[in-house]
Structures are given as structure tokens and as C-alpha cells.
Write a structure and sequence with these properties.
The structure holds two protein chains of two kinds. By secondary structure, chain A is an alpha/beta fold. Chain A is about 30% helix and about 20% strand. Chain A has nine helices and twelve strands. An eight-stranded mixed β-sheet of chain A has the order 6-7-8-3-9-10-12-11, with helices on both faces. Chain B is mainly alpha-helical. Chain B has a single domain, classed as MetI-like fold. Chain B contains eleven helices and two strands. Chain B has a two-stranded antiparallel sheet. In chain B, helix 3 crosses helix 6 and helix 3 runs parallel beside helix 11. The C terminus of chain B is likely disordered. Classes of the chains: A alpha/beta, B mainly alpha.
Chain lengths: ~325, ~325
């Protein structure tokens, strides 16, 4: 294994539950609970899980948009979780984010040239206004937009075009890692493919690593080399994308994969339908967090928390029963 | 579509698009023009001197003249031209009204921004302070402030007590400055609360997160992202606040603690005319109508702007 670009070690993010103005809150939402993984330079790691499982919070905590409660986020040998003020601001050049909602992620009162140019301004990447304009125009070209659109406001663009502007903004500082927070789930299916392909082309051109957060397994499988499956703030299975999708080991992943629609009408795949709802992340179940909904749970699943253990090379599963 | 619309051009377009806003703006414009032209009109003898005591202005019993009789809107108990006084009064009212609105907006936006952006203990402290101010009726608070200044003025020590920097001592006398400061200091809490609520909403939007991810300073967040996006609300509030400050200024004048006489002031005019209400009701009605018209105009303008800018976000 080569040197990791990003290494996350037992990261925890907890939010206090609002108790009242004067009472100190005793409960915490465990949005991210003891998560470890790593990303190598230029690779794409997919992060999947259902709504509310902590994917977005994990993505944000990695780039310090959310304060981690505990754990380390080591990026190029530096612990981001401990950086402060100017040192953190200087590092922010190296990791960026692409957001889910292209209608909320662009300042409605700024022109495109300033939305993208702001990235250059903050990190002093354009010595003068001519250089700034040229850089903005070349970035627009890179993401497949017309450079003459630089003077327009976001509301003059379609969803897909807006997402391209968001990508150009992230690219402007030449980052090494981009956290893509459901970058295509708000777009039409026809546009989704364009954006995913654009992201892939840009990766090949610039050697950027992606942490690709999504709930759509089909998209994640298409773009990722490795996959992390998250459930209730914890990682339950990781491995090569193809291996995880073809032979899921964790019962939750199995249910997730069985929910992906198959094109072949004669396919006899059995759909695993999970009973019940996701438990509250404030009081997660004792033992394995998945046991109340698990079709194969045993007695020890209710008491012992399964560790993420290696079942095959490059494959790790957090289940007592996985082989 | 929106290529290089200047701020004023955009404002004009927004105002013209709404009948309410246009009506309010037109009335305000009329008052502003009259107020600005007053000295010129007086020099050209189109308008009497507002402070000229004139025996001709009184009838044979020494009572104020009713409208007509050489005075378009009659004369007051000292024989002064009411029309002239009401127009000069517009200068005082509008100046104090707008100046105190600006003071209130400055304080309100600053408090609201800090509170909303930083949250936590600062938010708690600022908001409790704001609520404390809200619980006291603003006219009462303004009276308290005015009595602090007193009739003879008050020396304000703007330097730390330990340092002998007496050049920073300023005497605040009762006058335009003190009145607009007082009104400004009591009119900001509503603004602060609404700005805070807006900031709380805007700062969670993804474009603010994106700017933070880029490493934007708080200064940049405030000026480039938060303020431009709460500007429509602030403008609407500013118009509505102006209506209140003008009313408050007239109220203080009426109570005899506003801009000191003989400066023509609508509130003071009503007090002075009150004893003559039975025989010369125009002394109360004319300034009263002027107050109602301006206050209404600013309210209607604010309401129109809200309708126009509320539902859609325009650049």
C-alpha cells in the first residue's frame, strides 16, 4: 500500500441534544461513531448508507466544517482535527467540497466570476485582475461551461450547470482531495451521468482523490474503487467496490445491494426487506447497532459490539457472523 | 437579463413594479423636495419665514388666523405662517427620522449579525440585552435618555476614566443630534432580532459552508455572503423603522422634550396649537396630517418593498 493521502482514525462526532436554555444537555447524537478509513492519492472512495446514517457529517468532519469530538484526521501527515486559525485556513487549499444542492451552494447575489474568483482571492492565487479573469475562464472551460457566462448570476443556470460551477469553485484552488457530498442526487438522471463523467475526467486529469458520499449504490459503484458502507454512524463493511457489490458480507450491505434495481426482467434476485426503522442515534442499541433489524442476529449480537475485522485481503466487515 | 443593473436602477425598478411602494415613495419624494426647496422658496418670497413673529398674522382679537386671509394654511398664536412652519418642520422630521433610522440600523444589524454568526454565550448575552430593551416602551426609554441629557446638556467622557484625555469630553446638548441619537438608541431591538433570525438561516445555507471550506475569513463571510443576502430584509425594516422614528420624534416634540423651540417641529406645533383647538383647529390638524402622511408613506413603502422582494430572491 502506498502512502495514504488522508487517514481518519477513530473519528467521533457528537452533537449535544438541546435540553433547554439553562440545563446542560446529557444526551448526544452520535452522528459519527469511531470511524477509521484512509484514502490514497488520486483514488475514489465511495461512502454509502441510508439517510441520517452520518455520511454527510463524516464528510464535513473530514474537512473540518464540523468539529470532530474525538479522533484524528491525518492529511499529508498533519492532524487536521488539531489545526487552528491561519494554519487550518492555509491547509484548506488542499481539500474542497462539492455540495448536494446546486440551488443552495452558490451565493445568489454573486456573479459566477466572483463565486469562482473568491477561491483565488482567499488563497492569493491570482496576482492581478487579468490573471484572475483568465483563470476563471479556463476553469469554466474545464467544467464544460461557456467562459462568457462568467458575468451571470446563479439563477440564470440550470441545476446541472450550477453543479458545474460548484465543481469549478472547488477546482480553483487545485485541491488534492474533494469531498463530494451527494453531488448528483439533486439532479435529473440524464444530467447525473454527465456530472459523474466530468468528475471522473477531472480526476484523471488532475489526480484528485474523491470521498464520494451518496445513497445511490449504482452511482457509487460506477465511480469508486473502494466502498465504505455506513450504518448508524459506524462503518459496517469496506472493500473493493466490485467485491462488495457482488458478494456483500454484512447483512445490512446485503439488504442494501438487493435494493438496487436490476435491468434484467427475468432476474431472480431476492429482495431483502428490512423490518423496522433506523434506531435513534441518541440511544443506539447495545451490541451490534444493526441487530434489531438483522435477519440473522444471534444472542451475542445483542451484547457484543462487533469490531471491523478483516475477512479477506482488503475486505473488512463488522459482523460476528461474517466469514 | 440582469446585465450591470446599478443599485439605484434596480431599486427604482423594484419600487415602480409595486403600486404600494410607488405611492409611498412618491409621497416621501414630495416631502423631501418641499423640505429641500424651503429656503429657496423663502428667498423668492413664495413662503413666509417660519420664525417671523408677525402682528399681521393675528386677527383683531389677537387670535390665530384661519386658512385663507393671506396665509394658505393660516397662522399660529404668534402670527407665524403655518404652511412655512409645516414645511420647515418636514426638514426636522425627515432629518431626525432618517438619521435615527440609520443609527438604529447600524446598531441593530451589528448586534443581530454578531449574535447570529457567533452564537453561544455572546448570542445569549446580546439577545437578553435586546429583549430587555424591547420590554420598555421606546417612548419611555427615549424620555429617560432625554432627561439624562438634561436641559443644559451633558458632558460625555469618551475617554477611559483613568486617562486624562479631556479633549475627548463632548458636551451633548439637546438638539437635533441628541434627539436622533436618543431615538436611534431605542429603535434598534426589533431590527437586531430579525437580522439575527435571518443570519441564522443564511449561515446554514451551503454557499456559506462552501466559503468556509475555502477558508474565508469572518469578515469576508459577513460582507460577501451574509450582508448581501439579508439586505432585502434590512431595507424593508429600515423603511418601517423610519415610520416609527418619525412618529417617535413627533411624540417627543409633543411632550416638549424633542428638538427645542423655536425650531419648527410637527410635534411641538401640535402642543402649541392645542389650547387654540376650539377656535383654530388648523394649528393641530395641519401638523397632524403631515405626521400621518409621512408615517403612512414610509409604512406603505416598506410594505410594498416586502411584497416585491419577499417571495423571490432577486440579485
Amino acid at each position: 500500500m502506498s502512502e495514504a493521502l488522508l487517514e481518519v482514525k477513530s473519528l467521533k462526532v457528537q452533537f449535544p441534544v438541546e435540553a433547554g436554555p439553562l440545563t446542560r444537555s446529557k444526551d448526544f447524537v452520535r452522528a459519527v461513531d469511531d470511524v477509521s478509513f484512509s484514502i490514497e492519492p488520486g483514488e475514489t472512495v465511495g461512502l454509502v448508507g441510508e439517510s441520517g446514517c452520518g455520511k454527510t457529517t463524516l464528510g464535513r468532519a473530514v474537512i473540518r466544517l464540523v468539529e470532530p469530538t474525538a479522533g484524528q484526521v491525518i492529511f499529508e501527515g498533519q492532524d487536521l482535527a488539531r489545526l487552528k486559525g491561519a494554519a487550518l485556513r492555509a491547509q484548506r487549499r488542499k481539500f474542497q467540497m462539492i455540495f448536494q444542492d446546486p440551488y443552495a451552494s452558490l451565493n445568489p447575489r454573486a456573479r459566477v466570476e466572483n463565486i469562482i474568483g473568491e477561491a483565488l482571492d482567499i488563497h492569493h492565487l491570482a496576482p492581478n485582475s487579468t490573471a484572475r479573469r483568465q483563470r476563471v475562464e479556463s476553469l469554466l472551460k474545464d467544467v464544460g461551461l461557456d467562459p462568457s457566462h462568467a458575468h451571470r448570476y446563479p439563477h440564470e443556470f440550470s441545476g446541472g450547470q450550477r453543479q458545474r460551477i460548484g465543481i469549478a469553485r472547488a477546482l480553483a484552488v487545485e485541491p488534492k482531495l474533494i469531498v463530494c457530498d451527494e453531488p448528483v442526487s439533486a439532479l435529473d438522471v440524464s444530467v447525473q451521468a454527465q456530472i459523474v463523467n466530468l468528475l471522473r475526467d477531472l480526476q484523471q486529469e488532475h489526480g484528485i482523490a474523491y470521498l464520494f458520499v451518496a445513497h445511490d449504490l449504482a452511482v457509487v459503484r460506477h465511480i469508486s474503487r473502494r466502498i465504505l458502507v455506513m450504518y448508524l454512524g459506524r462503518i459496517v463493511e469496506t472493500g473493493e467496490a466490485r467485491a462488495v457489490c457482488q458478494s456483500p458480507r454484512h447483512p445490512y450491505t446485503q439488504a442494501l445491494i438487493s435494493a438496487v434495481p436490476v435491468v434484467d426482467p427475468n432476474s431472480k434476485r431476492q429482495r431483502i426487506i428490512l423490518a423496522g426503522d433506523v434506531p435513534s442515534p441518541i440511544h443506539p442499541p447495545a451490541g451490534c447497532p444493526f441487530h434489531p433489524r438483522c435477519p440473522v442476529a444471534e444472542a451475542r449480537c445483542k451484547t457484543e459490539v462487533p469490531a471491523l475485522r478483516e475477512t479477506a485481503p482488503g475486505r473488512r466487515v463488522a459482523c460476528h457472523l461474517a466469514k | 437579463m440582469s446585465l450591470n443593473f446599478g443599485f439605484f436602477k434596480t431599486s427604482l425598478r423594484i419600487i415602480c413594479a409595486n403600486r404600494l411602494a410607488a405611492t409611498g415613495a412618491l409621497i416621501i419624494l414630495l416631502f423631501v423636495l418641499l423640505a429641500l426647496a424651503a429656503p429657496t422658496m423663502m428667498r423668492l418670497h413664495l413662503l413666509g419665514d417660519p420664525n417671523q413673529l408677525n402682528l399681521n398674522g393675528l386677527d383683531k382679537d389677537g387670535m390665530p388666523r384661519s386658512p385663507g386671509h393671506g396665509y394658505l394654511l393660516g397662522s399660529d398664536n404668534l402670527g407665524r405662517d403655518v404652511l412655512s412652519r409645516v414645511i420647515y418642520g418636514a426638514r426636522v422630521s425627515l432629518l431626525v427620522g432618517v438619521a435615527s433610522m440609520l443609527t438604529a440600523t447600524l446598531i441593530g444589524v451589528t448586534v443581530g449579525l454578531l449574535s447570529g454568526l457567533y452564537g453561544g454565550k455572546l448570542d445569549l448575552a446580546l439577545m437578553r440585552f435586546t429583549e430587555m430593551n424591547l420590554t420598555i416602551p421606546s417612548i419611555l426609554l427615549a424620555m429617560a435618555f432625554t432627561s439624562l441629557i438634561g436641559d443644559n446638556g451633558r458632558i460625555m467622557h469618551l475617554h477611559p476614566a483613568a486617562l486624562p484625555w479631556h479633549f475627548l469630553d463632548v458636551t451633548l446638548k439637546r438638539g437635533l443630534l441628541s434627539v436622533f441619537l436618543v431615538i436611534g438608541f431605542v429603535s434598534w431591538p426589533g431590527m437586531a432580532r430579525i437580522v439575527r433570525a435571518q443570519v441564522l438561516g443564511v449561515k446554514e445555507r451551503e454557499f456559506v459552508l462552501a466559503a468556509r471550506a475555502l477558508g474565508a475569513s469572518h469578515w469576508r463571510l459577513i460582507w460577501r455572503h451574509l450582508l448581501p443576502n439579508i439586505l432585502p430584509t434590512v431595507i424593508v425594516l429600515a423603511a418601517m423603522t423610519t415610520a416609527n422614528t418619525i412618529l417617535l420624534e413627533a411624540g417627543l416634540g409633543y411632550l416638549g422634550i424633542g428638538v427645542p423651540p423655536p425650531a419648527p417641529d410637527w410635534g411641538t406645533m401640535i402642543t402649541e396649537g392645542q389650547p387654540y383647538f376650539a377656535t383654530a383647529p388648523h394649528l393641530v390638524i395641519v401638523p397632524g396630517v403631515a405626521i400621518v402622511l409621512t408615517v403612512l408613506a414610509f409604512n406603505v413603502l416598506g410594505q410594498g418593498l416586502q411584497e416585491q422582494m419577499g417571495p423571490r430572491q432577486r440579485p
